[in-house]
Amino acid sequence: MVIVVSFSFFASFIHRIMEMYFFRHGDFQHYYNCSAKSDQEWSELGQHNVGIGITCIVIGLITLPLYIPCMTTMLRSELWQHSCYKLMFFNGVIDIIGIVNSCFITGYFAIQGTVFCHAPHFNYLYGCLIMGFWTVQCMTSVVLAFNRCVNFWNSSLLSSMFQGNRTYYWYLLPIVYFLYFCIFVPPCLYSSYVHMWVLDPFLGVDVDVDPALVRSVTKPVIQVV
């Protein structure tokens, strides 16, 4: 099996970074151009779904309070001395952020019928953060799984990697992972038109889009042959 890095990486890379918004705003306005429709037309395009919105919010109201006793319990000294609880607490913080987004923010967007062009600047920057938080949760789970395996292997050398305050250094791996995806990967954007978080801000919308944008968010950079 040979891993081939596609040359499209160099063409699409410049469209993938959040830096484009701050330092090359003209490129942002070109690739995420909302001028194809008026504000009124974008508003009419959005699909107001009160049922989905209320369901998301209710789920959030049920699940979020359950984290309070769990997180508080993890902070007890007899538990906090174990590395796994330090990692689970960190993962719990990310979970809470995920619940706020998946339940409350998504619910509000569903009720309002939000599409990208309702507030392109906010949606773009917020989408970058959401992409980062999603991946940091994945990486934190991987670190926690590795920590549990180390415990089962009962290796003094491996166990020393998580002893005492050394566990906090493992926070850096998910944080770096978060920064990479937040900055170098296209944002994840909510669209009530398809009722999901998507990479393509104009998915399903009948507008002319620069093909470079579509390629940059849909074509794999690394192809496995």
TrEMBL record:
Domain of life from the UniProt record = Eukaryota
Q: Does the keyword Cell inner membrane apply?
A: no
Please give the name of this protein: G_PROTEIN_RECEP_F1_2 domain-containing protein
Record Pfam families: 7TM_GPCR_Srt
Q: Which UniProt keywords apply?
A: Membrane, Transmembrane, Transmembrane helix
Membrane spanning stretches: 50-68, 89-111, 123-147, 168-193
From which source organism is this entry?
A: Steinernema glaseri
